[in-house]
Amino acid sequence: MAGSCFADRLAKHVPLSDVEKKALARLEENPRRVKRGAMIQRVNETVTELFVLRHGRVMSFVILPDGSRQILRVYFPGDFIGSASTVYSKAPESLVALDDAVVCPFDKHALRRLLEEFPRVAALLFLLSNAERVAMTDRLASLGRTSAKARVAAFLLDIFNRVRLTDDSITDSFDLKLTQEEIGDAIGLTSVHVNRMVRQMELEGLISRANGRISLLDIKRLEEIGHYTNRHKDMDLDWLPAA
Amino acid sequence: MAGSCFADRLAKHVPLSDVEKKALARLEENPRRVKRGAMIQRVNETVTELFVLRHGRVMSFVILPDGSRQILRVYFPGDFIGSASTVYSKAPESLVALDDAVVCPFDKHALRRLLEEFPRVAALLFLLSNAERVAMTDRLASLGRTSAKARVAAFLLDIFNRVRLTDDSITDSFDLKLTQEEIGDAIGLTSVHVNRMVRQMELEGLISRANGRISLLDIKRLEEIGHYTNRHKDMDLDWLPAA
DNA sequence: CGTGAGATTGATTTCTATCAAAATATGTGG
DNA sequence: CCACATATTTTGATAGAAATCAATCTCACG
């Protein structure tokens, strides 16, 4: 099963010194198993912890007063999650495991010490947070300005490309680990309509499905339909302070 | 006219040392006037600059292949803009002045030097970037899961509260400096429908309008309608390294 | 004044939600 | 390992929200 530590993930962008790697590894000293469906953090709860996700998948979401849910983000191994608690003492979003997962909680004061001692890591975290913000703007444009079909296409491509970041064995088919209702909650549609779109894309030969796995059969056309741009390709962090 | 430097804005969250303030002030050494409507940054252009917005207002947006526009964010004096160029060498979004404005461009290598020398500032920027990300998730939930009326209400409240951050004189009425078409592009609606919602809210006594200024007459109900939570209130950055 | 951008209103269409039911799949306790 | 309970997917019919199309109106400004 694909697992990924935070240091490795960061090192994919910028070379890290051994000291830095070791310091980052300390954030993951307390791995904790969580079962599929388990709540890792509840909205409005007082929080002082952040997490590195080591194994499995996690989603963040909010529930609106009318009961509807907006899934904000799906996280993969090596992702830094719950970063909102660096700024707010009450969690603005909930975190639930989509999978049997392993998360590594650490106190924000451990983060503070890391930031103090390793300015280069602080800078790197700043950059990655900016990258997250850009990912968010892509979703915003998708929700605000594109059709149901485009949203589904963009969402599938997004998950696909992020799965591939941590799992090289994947070429065109992958486990979504989300119900159609969850997909809908992520992209602002009802499960019924997600199903119609998925069905349609299947008929058109854009995707195929078999026991929970999705295959993207025509990535190029999916990218067109979803107005998708892969942001992972052209990240450029080399200008950072040298190690 | 309300202007605000970056250091002052940051100092509202955390006490800054004089050295730090001075270092931050150096980012603003090259103020540049831009006229209303002027493009500050064009999407896909190679960029190595970031900006602090000193005066006026700026918006970021993308244009989709079908010509529709998604406004991603409206920026106010003291905001740090164009942070995507810390991660991408081609701008993922365009920047246009909504106002006659003053921006202070600085090279990302100036930022690098700042981050190297002042880890505490690096940490602070990291936190503010996280706050931006949370603001983004609020908009995502708004676009994905709420009605046209709710979106308009939430949008007005958001702008209102952010205007107030830099201008204490404002109590309940403010200049939006956006056409109804732009509002629509920000919240995923057509200008026609924005107009209907605004009209309706006016009839219901929730807001009133006079020569471009908007007054929020019933903030409490607007917050309910828009499912709005003011995130500026309970930010907590005190746990950061001491000066 | 005339011109053009923006606001407003009405009529109609389109997309997506909602409601309802059936069909499949998944999981669990015995 | 089966049988039942529950969750998820699928399909159809209908309703509703917002888009689109098309004028008209208003107002700031050269």
From TrEMBL, chains A, B:
Highest rank taxon of the organism: Bacteria
SUPFAM superfamilies: cAMP-binding domain-like (SSF51206), Winged helix' DNA-binding domain (SSF46785)
Any one annotated GO CC term: cytosol
Keywords, ordered alphabetically: DNA-binding, Transcription, Transcription regulation
Signal sequence interval, chain numbering: none
Domain HTH crp-type, first and last residues per copy: 146-220
One function term, GO molecular function aspect: DNA binding
Record-annotated Cyclic nucleotide-binding domain positions: 31-115
Protein name as catalogued: Transcriptional regulator
Coiled coil: none
